[in-house]
């Protein structure tokens, strides 16, 4: 069972060395290979200020969990330096890094009560009994589990066990907490509730959090910034709003939120806009973000909620055929054929004048050039 506890004496590796304004967590040209040939993390450079909630987001095998494990000390970087509060920690064992850790499987000691689970890392620090009891009570109260101290993990629900795991990570007042898919075993409703609880704790305590997930909505909900990983490389590092509204490349556009794709060839450019010819001979205008020059192929990204119905005179107005309608209460999800793309999605607010759409009919849709981003193929 893997645990990270704060040693009583961190010596020269204590957490008070950083000068004002410096990064608290740093990855400097970090690489990781398990076989000496294939890099699962490629030349990672990342800096976090103290107090930030940063999420490492990406598909399975993208390198995000490996980065977390290197920061925790469970994996060793093949190349580069990892620094915590200005100190290089590559060769510091996990139990001397002063880091709290929360795992998806909770990693609670089944033979101990809840209070004993929380007390254990404090005993490792040789803390007195009365201080231990006060800290355990405070940590349990923080996660609304104050009445469960005498129960064993098997007597708790999944959500309650996760709260206990979170309390144990916080009980010794770490300045950095790492969370590895901590809500993955919970059902949807409880997972969403715990997202808000964890974020509220972060805001109240001011701790630094590095959070790993493959769930994009979780990342957008909780984070100050999100690092989107793919193939061992950070594709974009930005606040959630920037990732969704202004993706840098086609991978981020497809991975974050729902997205429509149209491909075409660039036939002209005017400042920050490009004119793109589609396969059916029509053309549309798009914002030039990460695309080549005239004659080159580009992929255009348009969010479903940015598409407008029924204005023949608008920019980028085009005909669309309704293929499917799904009623979702607050909006209607329309799947349409647009320029040969039969998976083009339009989200229509459930308001007067929009529910008349029928399967099989043609309508006009449009979008602003600023809402259509020309990206890499």
Structural class, from helix and strand content?
A: alpha+beta
**What strand order characterises the main sheet?**
6-7-8-3-9-10
Low-confidence stretches: 1-21
Q: What's the end-to-end separation, in Å?
A: 44 Å
What share of residues are in beta strands? 25-35%
Characterize the main sheet. Answer: 6 strands, mixed
C-alpha geometry: elongated
Report on this structure.
- The protein has 377 residues and is of the alpha+beta class.
- The protein has helices at 64-72, 114-124, 129-142, 158-170, 188-205, 216-222, 240-245, 250-255; strands at residues 25-33, 39-48, 53-57, 79-84, 87-88, 99-103, 176-180, 208-213, 225-230, 233-238, 260-270, 273-277, 283-288, 297-302, 308-309, 318-327, 331-338, 341-349, 362-366, 372-375.
- The strands form 4 sheets. Strands 6-7-8-3-9-10 form a 6-stranded mixed beta sheet, sandwiched between helices. A 5-stranded mixed barrel has the order 11-12-13-20-14.
- Helix 3 packs across helix 4 (158-170).
- 37% of the residues are buried.
């Amino acid at each position: 069972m893997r645990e990270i506890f704060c040693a009583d004496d961190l010596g020269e590796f204590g957490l008070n060395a950083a000068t004002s304004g410096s990064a608290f967590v740093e990855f400097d040209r970090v690489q990781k290979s398990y076989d000496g040939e294939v890099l699962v993390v490629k030349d990672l450079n990342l800096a976090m200020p103290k107090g930030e909630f940063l999420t490492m987001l990406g598909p399975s095998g993208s390198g995000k969990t490996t980065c977390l494990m290197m920061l925790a000390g469970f994996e060793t970087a093949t190349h580069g330096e990892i620094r915590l509060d200005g100190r290089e920690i590559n060769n510091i064992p996990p139990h001397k890094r002063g880091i709290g850790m929360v795992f998806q499987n909770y990693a609670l000691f089944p033979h101990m009560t809840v209070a004993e689970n929380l007390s254990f890392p404090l005993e490792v620090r040789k803390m007195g009994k009365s201080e231990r009891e006060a800290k355990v009570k405070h940590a349990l109260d923080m996660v609304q589990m104050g009445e469960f101290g005498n129960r064993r993990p098997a007597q708790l629900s999944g959500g309650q066990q996760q709260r206990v795991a979170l309390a144990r990570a916080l009980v010794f007042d770490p300045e950095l907490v790492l969370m590895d898919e901590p809500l993955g075993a919970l059902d949807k409703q409880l997972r969403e509730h715990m997202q808000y609880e964890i974020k509220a704790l972060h805001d109240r305590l001011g701790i630094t959090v590095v959070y790993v997930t493959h769930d994009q909505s979780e990342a957008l909900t909780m984070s100050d910034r999100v690092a989107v990983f793919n193939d061992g490389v950070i594709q974009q590092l930005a606040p959630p709003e920037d990732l969704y509204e202004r993706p840098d490349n086609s991978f981020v556009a497809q991975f974050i939120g729902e997205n429509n794709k149209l491909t075409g060839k660039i036939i002209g450019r005017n400042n920050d806009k490009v004119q793109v010819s589609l396969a059916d001979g029509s053309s549309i205008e798009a914002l030039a973000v990460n695309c080549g020059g005239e004659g080159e192929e580009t992929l255009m990204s348009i969010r479903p909620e940015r598409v407008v119905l029924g204005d023949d005179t608008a920019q980028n107005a085009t005909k669309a055929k309704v293929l499917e309608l799904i009623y979702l209460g607050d909006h209607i999800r329309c799947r349409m054929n647009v320029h040969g793309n039969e998976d083009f999605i339009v989200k229509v607010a459930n308001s007067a004048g929009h529910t008349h759409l029928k399967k099989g009919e043609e309508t006009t849709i449009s979008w602003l050039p600023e809402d259509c981003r020309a990206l890499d193929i």
